[in-house]
Design brief:
By secondary structure, the protein is mainly beta. It has 4 domains: 6-52 and 153-165, no CATH class; 63-149, no CATH class; 172-311, Exo-inulinase, domain 1 (Jelly Rolls, Sandwich); 315-486, SGNH hydrolase (Rossmann fold, 3-Layer(aba) Sandwich). It is 13% helix and 38% strand. It has helices spanning 54-57, 334-339, 356-366, 389-404, 423-431, 439-442, 468-481; strands spanning 6-7, 15-17, 32-33, 43-53, 59-69, 76-90, 95-99, 103-107, 119-120, 124-126, 132-138, 148-157, 162-165, 172-179, 184-186, 197-207, 210-216, 221-228, 231-235, 243-245, 253-261, 264-271, 274-281, 291-297, 300-309, 317-320, 346-349, 374-377, 408-412, 435-437. A 6-stranded antiparallel β-sheet has the order 14-25-16-21-22-23. A 6-stranded antiparallel β-sheet has the order 15-24-17-18-19-20, with no helix packed on it. Helix 3 runs parallel beside helix 4. It is globular and about 70 Å long.
Length: 488
């Protein structure tokens, strides 16, 4: 069943296969528009099977523990046993086929409260009423390459006089094949995501020298994770990379996962039942948006596969910004978004120095994997004073992507600072008739770059960033002008 970009309904019905159908709004007189809210009105014809290895669907819950129900609390309990690893996967209420799992526990949306009783050694399970499923497998008899999850999904027919576009957007993309010495695996599409992205590489090794997961901006590797037989070396930000002994014997099978969460990255390396993990702060300076690339040096593999799961592509709000969108710094407004628990409603994309051009590179790449309800254009500070040709072009690109995909565009005023005058940008935003977030108003920025007392970090040079006080003012403005962030 091929991916369908657009279906024009004529005299005959067209088939769509999709477990998470999303659609853009299409303004055609007399046509009904397909969206997530009315999928139930389509004609369900049959079911088909989707399958995936555990790495493409789940998140490591615990190493050396298995899932159980606490006798006193009635909540999820992880019991110590070095023979087991446990994972958690979101479920959609359908029947899942399982292979290789010892303990299985369905959970509510809080990921703590069980739905039903603990199950063991099941080959299938009905996930009705559950939001998540926790699973444990015995590492003595199974490996991560042999535990599998499958579930059935509906095949739809569209009734006459309906139209659907981008009907099979999926948030999972992969590339696979043999890996030669000097060979590469690469997935096109550059981004600067802060949260909700999982990169997984798996291979059956026939010879091992070293492997590197590069994050490349098209010409150079900005960050990387390098693995040889002794060490793992993580290059992040502008820090000098330091080799760390991973303690593994790398032979036969190898897996590497890199998971982005709240501006940090959890890196896990697996081989022959052993595992090394490291969680590090991670961002890429210079406005870089990048794509992953596996590079082999002296390594060959008969089977190699790299996958990216853009988990945050399913979120209802996408935000394209710059250094203002750091999630771990109390002098940046998303820090307070995380503290209030609203961060999972929004996909944040941005890095220090990001221009409107870099933001649109990311938007063009990410729109393949999801369709938000709202998209926010929060760039401009790094485009310089006034409205350059590049800035105007990228602003128009943002609008055109939104219009083509039925997304509501939202703009932001950009507070003028002593070195960058953003008054022309802000004048357009306020008079555009589009929705906007008034960041300049929030901090009291005037045309000379003066902010309310204590809100601009004048201790840095140049002074372009808020203080903690300024970040709280910006966050408050987000809640005022974009209330969907708390409930979408």
């Amino acid at each position: 069943m091929a991916i369908i970009d657009k279906i024009q309904i004529g005299g005959e019905l067209k088939d769509i296969a999709d477990s998470q159908a999303r659609a853009v709004k299409i303004d055609i007189t007399g046509s009904k528009q397909v969206h997530e809210g009315n999928l139930a009105d389509l004609i369900k014809t049959s079911r088909t099977i989707e399958s995936g290895n555990i790495f493409s669907q789940s998140t490591l819950l615990s190493e050396g523990k298995y899932v159980d129900i606490g006798a006193q609390s009635g909540k999820l309990l992880l019991r110590d046993n070095t023979n087991y690893d446990s994972y958690i996967i979101p479920v959609d209420g359908s029947v899942y086929s399982l292979s290789g799992f010892r303990f299985i526990l369905l959970l509510e949306a809080d990921q703590e409260t069980p739905v039903g009783t603990l199950q063991q050694n099941l080959t299938s399970i009905d996930t009705t009423g559950a939001a998540y499923m926790a699973l444990s497998f015995d590492k003595r008899s199974q490996s991560v390459d042999t535990v599998l999850i499958e579930h059935s999904v509906w095949v739809y027919k569209i009734p006459t006089n309906w139209e659907m576009a981008d009907s099979r957007k999926t948030n999972i993309v992969s590339v696979s094949g043999p890996l030669a010495d000097g060979g590469t695996l690469e997935i096109a599409g550059r981004s600067a995501l802060k949260d909700g992205e999982l990169i997984a590489f798996k291979a059956m090794i026939t010879a091992f020298g070293s492997l590197r997961l590069n994050f490349t901006n098209g010409s150079t590797a900005t960050n990387y994770v390098d693995i040889d037989s002794t060490n793992i070396t993580i290059k992040k930000n502008n820090a000098t990379p330091t080799p760390i002994a991973h303690g593994l014997t790398i032979q036969h099978d190898l897996a590497l996962t890199v998971q982005f969460a709240n501006g940090r990255v959890k890196i896990a390396l697996y081989s022959d039942g052993g595992m090394y993990t490291e969680t590090v702060d991670w961002y890429q300076r210079g406005g870089t948006c990048s794509q992953p690339q596996i590079v082999s040096t002296g390594t060959t593999a008969t089977e190699a596969k790299m996958e990216i799961v853009y988990q945050s592509a399913k979120r209802g709000i996408w935000w394209f910004g710059d250094s203002y969108v750091s999630m771990g710094d109390p002098a940046r407004w998303p820090y307070y978004l995380v503290a209030d628990g609203y961060d999972k409603t929004i996909m944040l994309n941005g890095s220090p120095g990001m221009t409107s051009g870099g933001a649109m590179i990311s938007f063009n790449a990410l729109i393949q994997y999801g369709t938000p309800k709202l998209a926010v254009f929060a760039t401009g500070m790094n485009d310089g004073s006034g409205t350059s040709t590049a800035y105007l072009t990228n602003r128009a690109t943002f609008i055109s992507i939104c219009e083509a995909n039925g997304i509501t565009p939202v703009f932001c005023t950009v507070p003028t600072v002593p070195t960058v005058n953003n008054e022309a940008k802000n004048e357009w935003v306020r008079g555009s008739n589009y929705r906007y977030i008034d960041f300049a108003k929030a901090v009291g920025a005037d045309a000379n770059g003066n902010w309310y007392a204590g809100m601009l970090d004048t201790g840095e040079s140049p002074a372009v960033h808020p203080t903690e006080k300024g970040a709280k003012a910006l966050y408050t403005q987000v809640l005022i002008d974009l209330p969907e962030i708390a409930n979408i």
